[in-house]
Amino acid sequence: MSTVLEKSLLDVHPRELKGMVKDIPTLPAIYEELFDKLQDPDVSVPEIAEIITQDQALSSKILHLVNSALYGPGHNTMTISRAVVILGFRAVRGAAMASGVFDYFKGEESSEGIDMIKFWEHSIAVACTCKVIANDRRLEGKDEAFVAGLLHDVGKLIEKNYFTSDFDEICVLAEEKGLSWFEAEKKLFPIHHGTIGKTLFRSWKFSPAVVDAVQFHHKPGAASSAPQLTALVHLADYLAYEMDYGAPGAEGPRDYDPAALAVLGMTEQELFDYRELVEEEMEHSLDILDLVE
After folding, report:
1. Distance separating alpha carbons of residues 220 and 33, to the nearest angstrom
2. CA dist 12 → 20, 139, 190, 248, 286 (Å)
3. What is the Cβ-side half-sphere exposure of residue 25, based on CA atoms within 13 angstroms?
4. φ, ψ for residue 254, nearest 5 deg
5. Nearest-CA neighbor of 203 among 124, 289, 100, 120?
6. What does each C-alpha distance from 100 to 76, 85, 95, 155 come to in angstroms?
7. DSSP assignment of 55-97, as one string?
8. Which of 36, 183, 207, 218 has the fewest CB atoms within 10 Å, measured from its CB?
9. Out of 104-108, 259-263, 266-270, which region has the weakest mean confidence (pLDDT)?
10. Each residue of 32-58: b (16+ CB within 10 Å) or e?
11. Cα 106 to chain center, whole Å?
């Protein structure tokens, strides 16, 4: 799927990442056309449906997602046009974002440092937590909550595929010292998976809110475009580890930023009270793994 880049993350300044993304294949043209069109305030439902239905695989994936627990039970949407009407442009854009990333990493093999099934299970757990809390508390940007949670760690997969030696070094240090992935990255390199994810998704024209949440999910106080969404992903990541849905390759975060609770108007007990609802959501959402296996 990829070619290992010659540089190490040790030698890369964050400003250089944008140029390095050119060495990483872009999403298929259909996604770029769709994302561009969705930014047009005058776009119509038939126009969006026509773009999506040009690609049978994309149509199938979007319908799979919109009929899954991602958008709640009860939908039996059989056409793209109906999906756009029922769910709205933002929701369909989110489904397209997720399906595009799944396409890019479809068939990604596990390695000694990372079990891909566990990786996506953690990602889905974070996504489900984001969805449950966003819906319950009626947060801004709730249409993007599931997508941001689902994609928050994709920067790790870029490290795995394009900076293989660096990825292995992170795995070794995290295991030997009992560190989280983020802590190991900070000790070794000037760049972490959040920054890599931000650069990748910005180049793929993802929404500023998703980009912000991905970049700052370990430092939510630094988020400017989407502080609520970023705080949500930060806390959802922590809770997923507490529920034994941790990402492979490293320990979970030792704690969370209490300010993130304040941003969402929550207490710690309220956060932990969501565990039962998240478990129920997970039961209906794991079939999304079919899209990346």
Report:
1. 31
2. 9, 36, 8, 25, 36
3. 13
4. -70, -30
5. 100
6. 22, 21, 9, 15
7. -HHHHHHHHHHHTSGGG-TT----SHHHHHHHH-HHHHHHHHH
8. 36
9. 104-108
10. eebbebbeeeeeebeebbebbeebeeb
11. 15
Residue bearing tokens 């609770």 = 261
Residues in the chain, overall count: 293
Q: If you ran DSSP here, which 8-state letter would residue 256 be given?
A: -
CB burial readout 238-255, b (16+ within 10 A) else e: bbbbebebbbbbbbbbee
Report which residue type is found at 155.
G
The beta-carbon contacts of 281-286 under 8 Å, at least 24 apart in sequence, are 281/69, 281/128, 281/129, 281/131, 281/132, 282/124, 282/125, 282/128, 282/245, 284/68, 284/69, 284/73, 285/68, 285/69, 285/70, 285/124, 285/127, 285/128, 286/121, 286/124
Separation CA 220–CA 232 (nearest Å): 9
pLDDT tens digits, one per residue of 132-164: 999 999 987 777 898 899 999 999 999 998 899
Of 229, 183, 192, 220, the closest CA to residue 90 belongs to 229
3-state secondary structure of 274: coil
Name the residue type at position 10: L
The answer to whether the predicted template modeling score (pTM) of the entire model surpasses 0.70 is: yes
**What distance in Å separates the CA atoms of residue 198 and residue 216, rounded to the nearest whole number?**
9
Tokens 């773009």 identify what position? 51
